[in-house]
Amino acid sequence: MKNLILMGLLVGVCNTPMQSYAQENQELDVEQSAEVFLEEYSDTFQENFFEGLKQMGIRNYDRAITYFLECKRLQPQNTVVSFELAKFHLYDKQFVVAQEYAIEALNGEPENYWYAETLVNVVDARKSVLEEVKEELPWDNVVLRGNLAEIYFLKEDYVTAKSILKSVKNSKKYQYLEHKITDSIAKQQEKPTTVIVSKKAENTIDLSSTDGYKVKIEGLLASAGNHDELLHLTEDAIERFPSQPYFYYANGVALNLLNEHTDAIDILETALDYLIDDIPLENNIYKELATSYMATDNTSKANMYLSKIK
Questions:
Q1: Quick check: helix, strand or coil at residue 69?
Q2: Nearest Cα to 309, choosing from 298, 289, 1, 296?
Q3: Which residues have a Cβ under 8 Å from the Cβ of 81 and sit 6 or more positions away?
Q4: Were both Cys, which of 41, 203, 286, 307 would link to 45 (CB 3.0–4.6 Å)?
Q5: Residue 279 has pLDDT above 80, yes or no
Q6: What is the DSSP letter of 309?
Q7: Which range is least confidently modeled, 20-24, 176-180, 227-231, 243-247?
């Protein structure tokens, strides 16, 4: 099914001065392509969709949901709309409704990594398990199961990841993932068992490495915790590890959460400068840039970055 934002279009980012002219032309082509594609949708649909994105950019989720529900009425089978509604209801802690929309989006596009990730986040927020919704998913899709295994691996739920991956046919990609999962489980088993006696255990996370910072940052992002704390933590991470694009991305998220959208744009563009062969992070940066530009009423730029998402 066709999506609103040209999900299949990915444009490379050129950083050297000699490539600046080509990059400008490329960005214009992206905008023009997106505009042509949008002609397939009614003006009413477009107005509601972009107004929903704008409200998302300023974290006004109640109003955003209203606009996307109207999009849903106009295009009931549009998976992008279902995806956005799932995310908004998750933010609003309406987990049952969020799960319904997440499953609907994933059934429409089973191989979409971000739809799978949103469903996992909803399942986790409900303190549930994936097994409870397995029957509602197109489980025979190998890419879907591979994506889910990778998502649980990144969440350090290695047992669930291994169990999902068992049913996936062997390929070089999944063999490598299986090796990483097995290795991680082995490392966990080597560590002595400890008893957690305090909710402040997260303060013991070792911040002497990039992994330590990532764990703490991801915890703050997932819990929608203190925005100022996220900002200061990411600033510290950038100072200590200035070549890590993830820390610039997370800092941009923090700035957007604090309504510092212009500063967020600068830092997110810096993240792209450091990025090398990391499509999931690249997509996240594009999405956050689109949020920043929507919040500053620059829908043309927002649309351009949305169209770059793979």
A1: helix
A2: 289
A3: 4, 49, 68, 71, 72, 75
A4: 41
A5: yes
A6: -
A7: 20-24
Residue written as token pair 């989006």:
105
Residue with tokens 């992070």: 281
Domains and CATH numbers, the chain: 140-191 (no CATH), 205-276 (1.25.40)
259 phi-psi bin (left φ>0, alpha ψ -120 to 50, beta other): left
What is the C-alpha separation between 42 and 247, in angstroms, rounded? 39
In angstroms, what CA-CA distances link 165 with 50, 128, 188?
A: 38, 19, 19
* H helix or E strand, kind and range, residue 199: none
Report which residue type is found at 128. S
Mean pLDDT of 89-108: 91
Contact (Cβ atoms closer than 8 angstroms) between residue 140 and residue 120: no
Answer yes or no: pTM beyond 0.85: no
What pLDDT is recorded for position 170? 65
* 119-151 burial: b if 16+ Cβ within 10 Å, else e: bbbbbbeeeeebeebeeebeeeeeebbbbbbbb
DSSP 3-state of 308? coil
- The closest alpha carbon to 251, from 269, 268, 276, belongs to 268
Tokens 């998220």 sit on residue: 253
Amino acid at 40: E
Rg of the chain over all Cα atoms, to the nearest angstrom:
20
Q: What are 154-173's pLDDT values in tens digits?
A: 888 888 888 888 867 667 77
By mean pLDDT, which of 41-50, 218-227, 288-297 is the weakest? 218-227
